[in-house]
Design brief:
Elements (H helix, E strand, L loop, with lengths): L1 H11 L7 H14 L9 H6 L18 H33 L11 E5 L17 E12 L2 E5 L9 E3 L3 E3 L9 H4 L5
Antiparallel strand pairs: 1-2, 1-5, 2-3, 3-4
Length: about 190
């Protein structure tokens, strides 16, 4: 909601940005009158059971609803909004779980490689030509299920506690034998 308000104000505020308080009332009206994508009703309707008036004659002619009718109508609006929010929440969870993978069981002493994706190296300006992972570092401490503390050299100037998305298991590489050693040529 804050992002929407900021975007609304950006359109109307002058270049010195001193008149933004003057626009808050119209921003509030616009936000409260907008149908929310998750609840399918406007915030004003969810709170008060009716849509905002946009001017005109405010005197209502005809039957005035009783308090009990108003309460029943509000219950219905809240139930519908709650159902819509729950459905949206389930959809968001399902979408997020598609890209979520099982967490690794990291332990103190595990050997790992560190991703270079978010690291800055002055001596290597072409990031495209850099290694994807560096080092052979040891986990000093498991801080939480998604953060570990690494034993890093002083040349790497980052905080030693990193998110586990930055590390991968180190797998010892078998050294290739030279071609001559595999297929000796007799002289």
């Amino acid at each position: 909601m804050n992002q929407e308000l900021e975007q609304y104000l950006r359109f109307f505020v002058d270049h010195r940005q001193k008149d933004w308080p003057e626009w808050l009332a119209s921003a509030e009206f616009a936000v409260n009158n907008k149908v929310h994508i998750a609840t399918k009703v406007s915030p004003f309707m969810a709170n008060y059971g009716k849509e905002l008036r946009m001017g005109g004659d405010i005197r209502k002619k005809g039957k005035v609803e009783s308090a009990m009718e108003f309460i029943e109508r509000m219950k219905k609006v809240h139930e519908e909004a709650g159902t819509a929010l729950k459905k949206m929440q389930e959809e968001m969870k399902r979408y997020a779980d598609q890209s979520r993978k099982e967490t690794e069981d990291w332990e103190k002493g595990n050997r790992v490689l560190l991703s270079t994706k978010d690291l800055v190296f002055k001596e290597r300006p072409a990031k495209k030509l850099m290694e994807r992972y560096i080092g052979l570092y040891v986990i000093e401490e498991v801080v939480s299920s998604n953060a570990v503390k690494l034993r890093l050299p002083i040349s790497i100037r980052i905080h030693p506690v990193v998110n586990v998305s930055w590390i991968v298991w180190y797998k010892k590489q078998k050294k290739r034998q030279k071609k001559e050693e595999r297929n000796p040529i007799e002289v």
